[in-house]
């Protein structure tokens, strides 16, 4: 069970302290937004490179941008462990995967809540991660959408059938009261922003609680 806190909910001007506070996480989730694919704007490759240099854990970069065909490699070159892009943003996901694989970066594909997963199941053969969004991408602090969990189940079934051990990730509204539902559906990698970076909450304690709840649900 992997817990990847999202720094979208951290204090951007105290990023180094935020990163140090999540050293018990499996990776740090970095949300890249471009004002086009989603109505919000965050980090470019220069910032992601600095996060990579300072972070005690590997980077899980989530690209919410148009034209990953053109830009995904820039984020792979930051040294991120894994780069995930949205299938809705490209006509040629396999071409983007080719480029990322060439740089030796782990790869992920992501689907928005309204996007069916079936057409993309064959890609499980070559990706390291499938991200099923459990909110509309763009902002932290939204409510978990349990109705997308059948897509998580479909990914888990297909990965099992193919004998592939991939990261099955959910992102959005993940908190102690929702993580169990996702774990039961077959998710093994959990992004949590506002439930980890919350005033008055110790991020390490929040990570431990999420991990425990996910493990409990999958037993
Ligand atoms: C939303 C981002 C998420 C966000 C999750 O578009 O992809 O990673 O940080 O935030 P919470 O956990 O607050 O829903
Ligand atoms: Zn994200």
Write a compact overview of the structure shown:
With 219 residues, this protein is of the alpha/beta class.
Give an account of the 3D structure.
The protein is an alpha/beta fold. The protein has a single domain, classed as Aldolase class I (TIM Barrel), CATH 3.20.20.70. The protein has 7 helices and 8 strands. It has helices at 15-20, 45-54, 68-76, 93-102, 149-162, 179-185, 203-218, and strands at 2-5, 28-33, 59-64, 82-86, 106-111, 129-133, 167-171, 189-192. An 8-stranded parallel β-sheet has the order 1-8-7-6-5-4-3-2. It starts with a strand and ends with a helix. The protein binds D-xylitol-5-phosphate and zinc ion. Zinc ion binds at residues 6, 29, 31, 62, 171, 191.
Keywords for this entry:
alpha/beta; 8-stranded parallel beta sheet; 8 strands; globular; binds D-xylitol-5-phosphate; binds zinc ion
The CATH class label is Alpha Beta
Mean pLDDT: 98
Task: Tell me the overall shape.
Answer: globular
Helix- and strand-based class? alpha/beta
Unique ligands: D-xylitol-5-phosphate, zinc ion
Named CATH topology: TIM Barrel
Provide the fold topology.
Blueprint: E1 2-5, H1 15-20, E2 28-33, H2 45-54, E3 59-64, H3 68-76, E4 82-86, H4 93-102, E5 106-111, E6 129-133, H5 149-162, E7 167-171, H6 179-185, E8 189-192, H7 203-218
Parallel strand pairs: 1-8, 2-3, 3-4, 4-5, 5-6, 6-7, 7-8
D-xylitol-5-phosphate binds at residues 6, 8-9, 29, 31, 62, 135, 137-142, 171-174, 191-195.
